[in-house]
Amino acid sequence: MRENRHVSRWRLIHHLRVFDRESDAVLGHVVDITVGGMMLVSVDPIAIDRDYEVRMALPGSGQPPEVRLRMRALWQGTHEDADFHVTGFRLVDPCEEATARIRELVEELRFPGGSDVGGIREDPPNVA
User: Fold this and answer.
1) Are 88 and 74 in contact (CB under 8 A)?
2) How far apart are CA 34 and CA 76, in angstroms?
3) Which of 98, 101, 85 is nearest to 53 (CA)?
4) Mind listing the pLDDT tens digit for each residue in 66-82?
5) Are 85 and 59 in contact (CB under 8 A)?
6) Neighbouring residues of 23: CB distance < 8 A, sequence distance ≥ 6
7) Domains present along the chain, CATH in parentheses
8) C-alpha to C-alpha distances, 7 to 1, 13, 60, 87, 98, nearest whole angstrom
9) Chain-centre distance of CA 103, in angstroms?
10) CA–CA distance, 30 with 61 (Å, rounded to integer)
11) pLDDT confidence bin for 60, thresholds 50/70/90
């Protein structure tokens, strides 16, 4: 199944850590992001078809030091390094402040030259 994207995904120059707020464990690292969702790379597989309450640690000494979000895991894919997993998430009802901060992150931390997501499977895998 091919997902129709309406917003470009952006790779960031920092792989920001995303923590599960329930366990405070690192869920994964941001590979690419939009105001509607993100893709994480992780050592352990992440269960799909469920919501996660997360906090994303932000670089630098800016305020606030993190963004809190609710995200739904939609799909899992393959990474060029077989030791890692990638998972696609959709943000669930993000507040205006979170959306604005994500836009700022993209402007501050995106790779120059576009929304390339090389080395990572571009489309969600076919799901039965």
Assistant:
1) yes
2) 17
3) 98
4) 899 999 999 998 777 78
5) no
6) none
7) 10-109 (2.40.10.220)
8) 18, 19, 26, 18, 16
9) 13
10) 19
11) low
